[in-house]
Amino acid sequence: MKQFTTQQLILLRNRAVQQPQVIEHLRAQNAVVLNSPVQVPKTAIATWNLYYFCPVHGVRLVWDRACSTHHRCPVDGQQFSGEPYDGAWWREMNGLNARACHQLGLLWQLTGEAQYLDKVTAILTAYAAFYPNYQIHGNIPHNGPGKMNAQTLCEANCLLEFALGFDYIAEALTAQQRDDIQSRLLRCGAEFLLAHRTPQLHNHEVKIGSAIGVLGFILQDESLLEFAVNQPYGLRYQLEHGLFEEGLWFEGSIHYHFYALQGFLAFEKLAKGSRWSLLDAPFYRKMLSFPLQLLMPDGNFPRLNDCIYGQEKLDHSDIYEFAWSCYRDEAYAAALQAMYRATPRSNIDALLYGTDLPAQPLQLLPQQHLHAPSCGITIWRNPAKRRALLVKHTPYGGEHDHYDRLSLILFNHGKEILPDLGTTGYGAQMHYAYYKNSATHNTLAVNQANQPPAIPQVLHYHENKAFCWLDTEVDWRQPPPVLDSHTRVEWDNQAYRDVRFRRRLLWLEDALIDISSIENPHQQQLDWTLHLPGKALDATGDTATFSQNGPLSVMHDARVTPLLNSQPRHFAVSREGQALWLSGHAMLWQGSAPANPAVTDLSYLTLRSHQTQAEFVCVWDFNHKQPITKMRVKRDNSGLRMQMWRSDLTLVVDVNDDPSQLPQLCAR
After folding, report:
1. Which ranges constitute the DSSP H helices of 63-202?
2. Bridge partner list, 519
3. Which position has the higher pLDDT, 487 or 93?
4. Residues of the chain above pLDDT 90, percent
5. String of DSSP letters for 12-38
6. Counting Cβ atoms within 10 Å, is residue 570 exposed (0-12), middle (13-18) or buried (19+)?
């Protein structure tokens, strides 16, 4: 066996006796395969698991092993059949079979019960019988093809678990069974992956490289290991070129950061201690530590870029159990403690790699501000109020990016009051039609079209005890960035031609001031948008249609009124409600459009203008005891003067247009 030595297996068997809940957990997790006849596709019928979503509500359908032709929406019970749902059903079946090979193979090693050996043997021999004749298929945009599945990534994920399951039971197989599984499934699968790894930076290539490396260990083939680790676009190359300085994966999605890290560490679990391991390089510790600095006041990660609803949860025990055993960093122990507050520590990685956690509770949620200029994320925090603001000024991250430069996420009292919606399954219509668009983020959209790729610039950053200040801009007059990764063109260069968007943010004890300035020389339609997960309490104006087409053509109950002077708006989004003040020359639109999942609505607020020089000021008032009662904004040649009256004082803020100058504050 390549995964564990005899001495390690003895230790694991003793652990399993002392932790029977782990055995029960593994049995329960694989019950659908363990307690049913083996079901393996005879032809290349499986497609893509991300097609298995309701096209109306954007939620995952209910998978039923007993029915491969009817698929139910959990929201309203509607049944779907035919493609793409039937093929996606088989992709789920392949995944369950692969996981069962890995986990039931381990159960056999831990318990010696023949039922586990028999099931893994039956699954592997069935796939070995059919795999060479599976036809290469796919046609998923910007994805390599598959054989048992419809993309190279899914092929790699299944083959990795098949390989681990084979490793557990290989010594109990007959020579003929071993040869068949090795040659017709594992070797054939490795050759397919070698032929279809793409020369690009991407989480797919990490997962494919990891699977090739694991197959190299199991098949004792150093040429596979060399290809996986050291060839261009192999694992070492991905680490050296795919990380920002702070340690965030270049795709800018926390989900794909962990997805890539999962691939790297799946390889390292076999490579540790060998000359192929990269554990001693600096990359993994950065990748493990930096995301924990991004946790929001609710204990979740921000849903930046492609993050399907639910993937923002901190539930990566497979990653942090191994990381804690390797590096003994208390931040990783704190992450594990948080994961196990509501869930027992009875998973496979805790059994295989777990070491004792500190007895005392460790602080997990970050308390300090974060400014990470390389990856383009700034977070300001007020821990006492469970308040936080995230500003996204990230470079373009490829096909999993969303087109929302200078977008905001805002929390107050631990509740997300300006959310990033993330997305839904990529096969669901709402992914491209709604969630992935500029217009459905808290940023600027021009002509309701998507922002082209760009790299925002930080003009000035400052923090002290009194306030924090960020001056950042994105300039579409500059040439677009070149990225060595998949690119799916979903933007409109013409709409954003010569547009420059500058956003300046001032973080105070009880207010957030947001100043957006847009150069719009061709007088395009500018839509500066916020969306809040609560009812609008004072929407006024004429009933009208917000958009005839585009992502917000789904907006309903839309009203429009001129924005005159400074106006407040109120929303029922927190225990005390939320007030904000708006100033600028624009039409003020309010309406409702889907949240995520699309079973409830958000309240949208949009300032629309065609001015060549547009400027919008938004002040978030967090002082509910002494709220702002009046606001006045004046502009002169040097900048803005904002006056905000409360019952006890007047706050004056002067903002100079010179990026080198900090705002001046005076309370009287």
Report:
1. 85-111, 114-130, 152-169, 175-180, 188-196
2. 500, 613
3. 93
4. 95
5. HHHHHHH-HHHHHHHHHHTHHHHTS--
6. middle
Residue closest to 92 by CA, chosen among 139, 137, 147, 52:
52
- Enumerate domains of the chain plus CATH numbers: 1-138+146-165 (no CATH), 370-632 (2.70.98.70)
Amino acid identity at 212 = I
Instruction: List pLDDT tens digits, range 428-437.
Output: 999 999 999 9
Give the predicted TM-score (pTM) of the model.
0.95
Q: What is the pLDDT of residue 575?
A: 77
Q: What is the dihedral of CA 456, 462, 463, 465, to 10 degrees?
A: -150
pLDDT in tens, 581-609: 999 999 999 999 999 999 999 999 999 99
**Among candidate residues 86, 191, 82, 212, the one with its CA nearest the CA of residue 132:** 191
Instruction: Please compute the mean of the pLDDT values over residues 170-194 and round it to a whole number.
Output: 98
Distance CA 149, CA 43 (A): 10
Contact 591, 557 (CB under 8 A): yes
Q: Of the candidates 173, 347, 178, 164, which has an alpha carbon nearest to the alpha carbon of residue 270?
A: 164
Q: How far apart are CA 654 and CA 459, in angstroms?
A: 18
Confidence of residue 141 (pLDDT cuts 50, 70, 90): confident
Query: What is the longest distance spanned by two Cα atoms in the chain?
Result: 88
Query: Which letter, b or e, does each residue of 193-228 get, where b requires 16 or more Cβ atoms within 10 Å of its Cβ?
Result: bbebbbebbbbbbbbbbbbbbbbbbbbebeebbebb
602 residue type, one letter: L
Predicted pLDDT at 593: 98
Residue recorded with tokens 């204990």: 299
What's the full length of the chain, in residues?
Answer: 668
SS3 state of residue 37? coil
Write out the two tokens for 435.
């969630």
